[in-house]
């Protein structure tokens, strides 16, 4: 006596539905994890800028001036000793945070800029800083009012010249390019004055590529 086999496998349509559901759930999980990674990186950036800012304020108390950028590169990162053991780099690009300051050999104000990955962060301010490339900053209490351009950040592709950034090359202060991938000047330390404030006499302050 033969028994009729009533067990049926999944039809092609049912199989496609199952695969679609699994794929959709996978996309949701990846998006969630990606968002959490962004938030973690941004929390690190905020903490980094605050740490640097506190150290810079301590430096100013002892020197009556805020430091020049030559002391704020994160590689090797020892320029703010003993106020800060190691100047932190951006957690993703490994680049020095952009340090903006009064154009003087003895700056009286400063700003430190970072770029948050989560643009919906409540502290994100679109289009601030040089080239409108940043969205977060930490500054001295007396820094000029922050201005948001609301414009489009620096385009990707070939670097463009930014007139007010200079670096020491072979002992001479020369204009340097802007790297959108950073975003920021293509090397550190960089200055906002065509004299580099006389820093180029010191080989230690040669402008080195941020991604080396």
Strand and helix layout:
Blueprint: H1 12-63, E1 98-101, E2 110-114, E3 136-139, E4 160-169, E5 172-179, E6 184-185, E7 187-188, E8 208-209
Antiparallel strand pairs: 1-2, 2-3, 4-5, 5-6, 7-8
What does this 3D model show about the protein?
By secondary structure, this protein is α+β, with helices and mostly antiparallel strands. The chain has a domain at 15-154. Helices cover 25% and strands 17% of the residues. It is built from one helix and eight strands. It has one helix spanning 12-63, and strands at residues 98-101, 110-114, 136-139, 160-169, 172-179, 184-185, 187-188, 208-209. A hairpin with a 2-residue loop joins strand 4 and strand 5 (172-179). It starts with 11 loop residues before the first helix and ends with a strand.
């Amino acid at each position: 006596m033969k028994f009729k086999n009533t067990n049926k496998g999944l039809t092609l349509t049912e199989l496609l539905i199952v695969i679609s559901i699994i794929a959709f759930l996978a996309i949701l999980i990846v998006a969630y994890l990606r968002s959490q990674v962004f938030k973690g990186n941004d929390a690190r950036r905020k903490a980094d800028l605050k740490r640097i800012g506190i150290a810079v304020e301590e430096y100013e108390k002892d020197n009556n001036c805020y430091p020049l950028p030559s002391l704020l590169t994160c590689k090797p990162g020892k320029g703010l000793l003993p106020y800060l053991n190691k100047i932190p780099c951006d957690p993703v690009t490994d680049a020095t945070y952009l340090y903006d300051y009064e154009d003087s050999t003895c700056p009286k104000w400063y700003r430190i800029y970072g770029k948050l990955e989560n643009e919906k962060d409540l502290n994100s301010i679109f289009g601030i800083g040089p080239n409108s490339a940043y969205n977060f900053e930490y500054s001295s209490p007396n820094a000029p009012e922050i201005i948001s351009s609301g414009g489009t950040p620096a385009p990707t592709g070939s670097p463009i010249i930014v007139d007010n950034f200079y670096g020491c090359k072979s002992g001479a202060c020369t204009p340097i390019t802007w790297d959108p991938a950073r975003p920021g000047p293509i090397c550190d330390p960089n200055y906002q004055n065509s004299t580099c404030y006389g820093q180029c006499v010191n080989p230690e302050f040669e402008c080195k590529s941020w991604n080396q």
